[in-house]
Amino acid sequence: MTDVVSGLAPELAGAKEGQGSKPLASASERFTSYDLDAFEVPGGREENWRFTPMKRLRGLHDGTARFDGSATITVDGSSETVGRDDARIGQGGVPADRVAAAAWTAFTEATVVTIDGTPEPVTVRVTGPGEGAVAAAHLQIRTTPHAEGTVVVEFSGSGTLADNIEVVLADGSKLTLVVTEEWADDAVHVSAQHLSIGRDATLRATSVALGGDLVRISPTVKYRGPGGDAELAGLGFADAGQHLEQRLLVDHGEPSCTSNVLYKNALQGRKGTTDARTVWIGDVLIRATAENTRTFEFNRNLVLTEHARADSVPNLEIETGEIAGAGHASATGRFDDEQLFYLQSRGIPEDVARRLVVRGFFGEILSKITLPDLRERLEAAIEAELAVTGI
Amino acid sequence: MSTLEIKDLHVSVATDDGPKEILKGVDLTIEGGQTHAIMGPNGSGKSTLAYAIAGHPKYEVTSGSITLDGVDVLAMTVDERARAGLFLAMQYPVEVPGVSTSNFLRAAATAVRGEAPKLRTWVKEVKTAMSNLDIDPAFGDRNVNEGFSGGEKKRQEVLQLALLAPKIAVLDETDSGLDVDALRVVSEGVNRYKASGDVGVLLITHYTRILQHIKPDVVHVFAGGKVVLSGGPELADELEKNGYERFTSPAAAV
Ligand SMILES: Nc1ncnc2c1ncn2[C@@H]1O[C@H](COP(=O)(O)OP(=O)(O)OP(=O)(O)O)[C@@H](O)[C@H]1O
Ligand SMILES: [Mg+2]
Question: Could you tell me the CATH number of the domain that includes residue B252?
C-alpha cells in the first residue's frame, strides 16, 4: 500500500496510497442506519458533531425534540405526495447521523418530484413549521433515464426542521439543483442530502445558505455506475450569531467518475454577541474500486470582521493508486484594514467597499445559477445581509 | 486653483512600546499648477506624511493641521478625502482579492464623480487610459493588484490617477521598481495629468532620474520627520551628488 499516487494536484504531490490525512477508511466505515435507536445520542465530542453547538439543536439529536409541527411544502410543477411505504423512498441513501435518522423516523409523508423531460424548472418551497414548532420532512427528487431538468428547493420561514432530501439520478440524466436557505433569524435546519448518481449521470448542485440561527447541511454523493459527474458549489453568508455548517462526503466507489466541490463562505460578526460561524468539512473518499477518478474540492472563506470564525477541514482518502486527478485545498482570508484603506483611498465608502469585495467573492458561485430571477433575488439578499449588519 | 496646506504636522504610529513620533512638525504648502519633489533618506517619514494626508488609520495626527482650500482634511474620513480631490499613489499598492480591476475602477470613478459614468463612454475612457500607459486590457479582468509585478502595480496607480483626476496628487516612490521604458510611460502619465488642469503634485522620490521627466518647481529635503531645506530644482542635483549626510549627521541637527 505504498504506491505513489499519480495525477495529484501540486499540494498533494508525493502522496502515497493509503496516506490520507486521516486514518484510512474512516469515511468508508461511516455508520448508517434507518433505525434511530441504532445511533447513540451524541454528546458533542464526536467527530461529526464537534463543530456543532449542540445546545442550539433544540433536542433534535437527543430525542427531546417533539415533532409537533409540520413544514408546508408547495411545488411549482408536478409532484406526488406519498406514504412512508412507497417503494422509492430510501433509494437515495441511508441516514448517517442521529438527526437524519430522527427525521427519517418522524416524517409521515414524502414529496416526490420526478424529472422526466419537462424543460420548465420545478420549484419546491419548504416553509418551516413556525417559531417554537419542530417538524420533520422528506423530499425526493428523481430523474428518468436521459432526462434533463432543473429543480430549485427554497427553504424559508421559522421554527425547527430536520429533513432528508434524496436525489436519485437515473442513468444518463442531468439535474441542475439549487437549494437555498433563506430562513428567518430563529430557524434551525438540519438537513441530510443523499445524492445518488447513476451511470453517466450529471448533477450540478448549488447551495446558498443565508438565513437561520443554525443551518447544518450534510450532502453525501454516491455513484451507482461509471461516468457519473457531480459538481457541488455552495456559498454561505454568516452574520452575527449564525452557525452555518456544510459537511460534504463524496464517496467514489465506481470507476471513471468526477467530482468537483467549490464552497465559499463569508462571515460578518458583531461585537457583543455570539460569533458568526461557518464550518466546512469536505471528505472525499476514493475507494479501491474507483479507478480513474477525478476529484477536486476547494473551500474559500472570507472573514469580513472581527467576531467571526471559519473552520475548514478538507480530507482526501485515497485507496487506489490509479486516479486521473485529485486536488483539495482550503484557504481563509481576511478582508483587512489595508484593503479597506486602499479602496477607501479611491473614494469608495466603507459599505460599498465591503459589498464590492463580497460580490466579487461570491460571483463565481452565483454565476452558476442560470435562472436570472433567482440569481438576482439571491444577489439582492446578499446585499441586504451586508446592509442589515452594516458596520 | 487648489491649495493643500500642511502646518506643523506631528504624527505618531502605535508600536509595542507605545506611540512613536515620526513626523515632527511638517510645514508644506502645495498650490495647484505646482510640482513639489520630496527627497530624503530611508525612514525619514516620507511615506508617513503621504499616509497621514490620505488618512491611514495606523497614523495618528497628534497636532498640526492639513487643509485643502481651507477645509479641514483631518476631519474627513479616508474616502471623503479622496472625494474632496486628494489622491495617493502608494509606495506599496495593496492587493484586493475577489475584486476585479474594472469593477474597482468603476466603483472608484462613481464615488469620486458622484454618479456612475455612462457605460459606453466609460469603457472607451478606460481603454484609452490603459493604452496611454501601455497596460494590457486583460488587466481589467484580474483582481486588483493581485499577483501584479512591482512595476505593473505602479502603472495601475497612475491609471487611477488619470481616471480619478484629483486636485492634488501625492506620488510615493511611483518611480521605484520601474525599468527605463516604464519610467518614461509613467512619467508621461503624470505629465498628462499635470497638463489636464491646475493640479498640484507632491512627488516623493529617491532618484533624480524621474525629475528629468517630471520637472519640479520646488525640491524639499526631508529628514528626521520634517522638511529641513527647500530649494529649486538644482537642489535635487546637489542631493544626488552629495547625499543626505549634511542633513542627517549629528552636526546638522536643527
Ligand atoms: N508600525 C510601525 N512601528 C514602528 N515604526 C514604524 C511603524 N511604521 C513606520 N515606522 C517607522 O517610521 C519611520 C518612517 O517610515 P516611513 O515609511 O514614513 O519612511 P520613508 O521616509 O517613507 O522611508 P523609505 O524611503 O524607505 O520609503 C521608519 O523608521 C519606520 O520604521
Ligand atoms: Mg516610503
Answer: 3.40.50.300
